[in-house]
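Hello forum,

I keep getting stuck at the same step: I have a sequence, I want structure tokens, and every attempt I make locally crashes halfway through. Rather than fight my setup again tonight, could one of you with a working pipeline run this one for me? It's a single chain of 214 residues.
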Amino acid sequence: MGGRAVTGRIIETLADVEEGADYLERVCPRLAEARRLTGPLPLRRKPEGFAELLSAIVSQQVSTASAAAIWGRMKAAGLTGPRKITWASDDDLRAVGLSRQKIRYARALAEARIDFKGLRERPDAEVVATLTEVPGIGVWTAEIYAMFSLGRADVFAPGDLALQEAARVLYALPQRPKDREFRAMAESWRPWRSVAARLLWAYYRVDKQREGIR
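Reply #2:
Ran it on my machine without issues. Output:
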């Protein structure tokens, strides 16, 4: 069973994910159908801290392969901590593949001096607000961090295109739900919106495979 902090339920194990999926199956027949198609859902927990957010910045607007290559060079050069980013020259950061804009974002993250341990006890909205104060970290990145690095059970990412497309297909909507509409739609999935996201992402992959077969 997951822990309970002042922030609410924390997803720590696959049993927590299954508990959330059981709840969603009871409250929504469409999600129940999606679960039958997807099977067990992944835990998807990620590390927390500076390096995780820096990696997210590195991954913006480049392919998965390019992001992995740049991050690999950064790790090899020891450029994954705030002090090393602060001390590095622009030339050092360009040499590992960071653009001028991403150098600015990386330095802004280092200078923000975020209390990552303190974030564990902050409400979801405060976590998102704190992270999005840093240039280069948008709402989607902050929500994903809260969801997977902090394990928050009731965070959603309505701006995610794959989630929008999965909802469009699963609920037979005429078009992808926009951010505000989707956020309102997700209210009915409380207090397990993070599990609903896992379920919709899994359903998106299943649906795309079925489209490929056709």
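DSSP finds 13 helices and two strands in the chain. If your local run keeps crashing, start a new thread with the error log.
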